[in-house]
Amino acid sequence: MNNIKYIKGNEDYLDLIRPLWEKLNKHHKKNSIHFKHKFFKFNFTIRIEKLKEKIKNGDLKVTIAKDINKNIIVGYSISSLSKDIGEIESIYVEPEYRGNNIGDYFMKSSIEWFEKSKVRHIQIGVITGNEEVFSFYERYGFYPKVTILSKK
């Protein structure tokens, strides 16, 4: 899509993605099998505070996809560097914009950043109930490694 502009920044850009993050959280509320209640308590402010705490000695990259014709944000990714671990923290693309390589751009951009930073390990957390995204992540070499069980 020629009408998509990518904007890269840091935690200063987080407020711009709030509406999309809330859509992703709503998706997790709907699809979570055992921990729906956690997503009802979880909000954007809590998420941002956790991210800021995590990167006190690291770095954060926020990438936004903007439809310049409509002047709206249609997707985002948040990636972090902490010690020698790179993590794709959150990624979301509006449903009507999926299939236009926006997610591809987010993944490649994050992986490139991690590789330049010489991290030892790159990871993505996927909420149980959202396994439909596995095939997307597999295109970039990510596969389920461990399932961590939590007591309700």
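Above is the first protein from milestone M3; the second protein from the same milestone is given next.
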Amino acid sequence: MTDLKFEDCLARLEQIVTALETGNLPLDESLKVFEEGIALARHCSRYLEDAERRIEILVKDEAGTPTARPFTPSEEEA
């Protein structure tokens, strides 16, 4: 699963949700795809957390020199 792209993972997760919502799967199959869905959701979450850590913003320090620093959600509002 580690080689899945985020978009592919999300698309498969949407397929699983649709299949479970229809209620047409046997119980064993429902459990199997539910477990797959949980694993995919965790994978997507880790992917997003990693992406957030990689995002940096460029700001000027006191001397006017551009520097990079990690993005924090509170800065988005400022």
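Note on the second protein: The chain is about 65% helix and 15% strand.
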